[in-house]
Amino acid sequence: MQESQETHISNHLDEVVAAVSITHRKKFRNKLPQTALFQPPREKLHLCEEKAKSYSNSHEYKQAVHELVRCVALTRICYGDSHWKLAEAHVNLAQGYLQLKGLSLQAKQHAEKARQILANSIVPPYNENTDVFKFSIELFHTMGRALLSLQKFKEASENLTKAERLSKELLQCGRIIKEEWIEIEARIRLSFAQVYQGQKKSKEALSHYQAALEYVEISKGEKSHECVPILRELAIVEQALGLHDVSINHFLQAHLIILSRSPSQVEAADSAHIVAHAAVASGRHEHHDVAEQYFQESMARLKDSEGMGRTKFLSIQDEFCHFLQMTGQKERAISILRESLEAKVEAFGDFSPEVAETYRLLGGADLAQGNHSGAHKKLKKGDLIFLLSATFP
């Protein structure tokens, strides 16, 4: 039975049949370049891999990509042009490019290079090395993500389907354990959700986001930081479908996870601001209290900040004033705007769009109250500042 299942794996996906096994060990040893026999290149490769991982974990993606490029070169030295490890190095580099915005084409090219290395260099038998099957899942998934970034949704879905089918077959054959499969499935489901979201198919995206979240909660825990981006993307889809109550709850769940990890004041403020924004977006009166609560929390965390934190505070404060005006609290909004004017001049400069917009809002308030003289002065000053800021940015 085990032999029959393994034969089914190798017959199921053409790409895997062509690509995912290693050459007989004796034949492979004959092809291995002499440089791979020396220890220093292997040590350098291991060091580069560790540095790339460290940079990636620190979100220093440019440095990570630099190390991953070195990994490709060192892997070729250590293993030659015919080893699946070289294909793996190209996939790792593709993943690095995907973390850098605007480099999806480079990611696709390296994923294609990895597929070419496997297809051209590896011969039967097809059932010797489970690691190669696992890597093939990663290859299909990475290609799918690269195509997704390039908005080639049909091709992306095809590659993700191959990754999903192969992972299920490896689970059925006992090549991977259930816990490992759950982690793989979580990533694939998230990518499927993003494909559907890119196609504006919110209903289809919803079920995949829900599945991805469930698998991450099983494998990492309900309070894992990995749940945060999934919760937020899920909430955005729910928002688009008009499911505002559950959407706000998922934004709140993500916010509580952020707070549980001792975040910086700016990170915590951003998270609270997202919740406030979602409550405003619902357009429902019953969510006004939630919006105000999280606007206040966001501003309180940034109130005494300097630099970028200060400018962020003033920006969120303006958004809060718009919310107050929208909910009929115009006098309160105008009072806050008047008090903010001096701070905005200090933070953004006398001739900035932010200061111009504040003068315009104050002028509009004076006009509504019948103070035509004051309104004229403020509106004229706002228009002049806006013109100057546009002419001399």
Structure summarized in a few sentences:
It holds the Pfam family TPR_12. The protein is mainly α.
Secondary structure: elements and pairs:
Blueprint: H1 2-12, H2 14-19, H3 25-31, H4 39-57, H5 61-79, H6 84-99, H7 104-121, H8 130-149, H9 153-172, H10 178-198, H11 202-220, H12 227-240, H13 244-259, H14 265-282, H15 288-302, H16 308-326, H17 330-348, H18 353-368, H19 372-391
Helix pairs in contact: 4-5, 5-6, 6-7, 6-8, 7-8, 8-9, 8-10, 9-10, 10-11, 11-12, 12-13, 13-14, 14-15, 15-16, 16-17, 17-18, 18-19
Rounded to an integer in angstroms, the radius of gyration calculated over CA atoms is 27 Å
**Helix and strand composition category:** mainly alpha
Global shape: elongated
The biggest sheet amounts to:
none
Instruction: List segments where confidence is low: pLDDT < 50 over at least 5 consecutive residues.
Output: 5-38
CATH superfamily of one domain: Tetratricopeptide repeat domain
Number of helices: 19
- CATH fold label of one domain: Serine Threonine Protein Phosphatase 5, Tetratricopeptide repeat
CATH class of one domain: Mainly Alpha
The average pLDDT value, as a whole number, equals 86
Question: What is the total tally of β strands?
Answer: 0
- For the record, the CATH architecture of one domain stands as Alpha Horseshoe
**Element-level helix/strand string:** HHHHHHHHHHHHHHHHHHH
Instruction: Classify the helix fraction into a percent range.
Output: over 70%
First-residue to last-residue Cα separation: 73 Å
> Per DSSP, what share of the residues sits in E-state strands of 2 or more residues?
under 5%
Pfam family, one: TPR_12
Protein name: Tetratricopeptide repeat domain 23
